[in-house]
Amino acid sequence: MDRIPILKMGDFLLVTIQVDMYDRLALNLENDLIQMVNKHEAKGVLIDISAVSIVDSFMGRIIGNIATMSKILDAETVVVGMQPAVAITLVELGLPLSGVHTALNVEKGMQLLQDRINSSDFHIDDAEADWDDDDDQLE
Predict the structure, then answer these.
(1) Treating both helix axes as pointing N-terminal to C-terminal, what angle do 57-72 and 23-40 enclose, rounded to 10 degrees?
(2) Residue 44 Cα distances to 27, 76, 84, 113, angstroms
(3) Measuring CA to CA, which residue among 1, 33, 37 is closest to residue 15?
(4) What gap in Å lies between CA 11 and CA 5, rounded to an integer?
């Protein structure tokens, strides 16, 4: 059974797709990736599609599903390396890829993930600070 390697890098998972995707491989990637997000409590998923020349509606849907499922598990998804022809195809197919962030390359994608995590940490800290303030008022 074919699989696409998923690498763990700190709080993130990195997937580099180097082959043309077919339906079974895409479904395996979706399942494996969600299992890895849950197992490692990953905060971000970066999918590099720079070697992919064709993204059909099924693959677009799989990427959207990965982003939605990852978000439910508290992880952000960034797709990097999208070729212009792929972007044109996705728009023409009417696939908005909701919940998917994009960046030009892996470096910018990792920075985007880090920024998003830092941003969400800020909100958690704010909520804790508010909670502490409430405790102070009760005392």
Answers:
(1) 10
(2) 19, 5, 24, 6
(3) 33
(4) 17
The sign of the torsion formed by the CA atoms of 70, 53, 60, 100 equals positive
How far does Cα 129 stand from its chain's mean position?
29
Using a 10 angstrom Cβ sphere, with 0-12 exposed, 13-18 middle and 19 or more buried, the burial of residue 3 is exposed
User: For residue 16, what are the contacts with CB-CB under 8 A and spacing of at least 6?
Assistant: 4, 5, 7, 48, 51
pLDDT over 70 at 54, yes or no: yes
Q: What is the DSSP string of 71-96?
A: HHTT-EEEEE---HHHHHHHHHHT--
**pTM of the model as a whole:** 0.82
* Total number of residues shown for the chain: 139
Q: Computed from CA positions of residues 10, 78, 68, 53, in that sequence, does the dihedral angle turn out positive or negative? A: negative
What b/e sequence results for 77-101 when a residue is b if at least 16 CB atoms lie within 10 Å of its CB, and e otherwise?
bbbbbbeeebeebbeeeebebebbb
CA angle 3, 66, 26 (to 5 degrees): 35
Tokens representing 98 are 């909701």
Tokens describing residue 72: 């439910």
Q: Give the model's pLDDT for residue 108.
A: 97
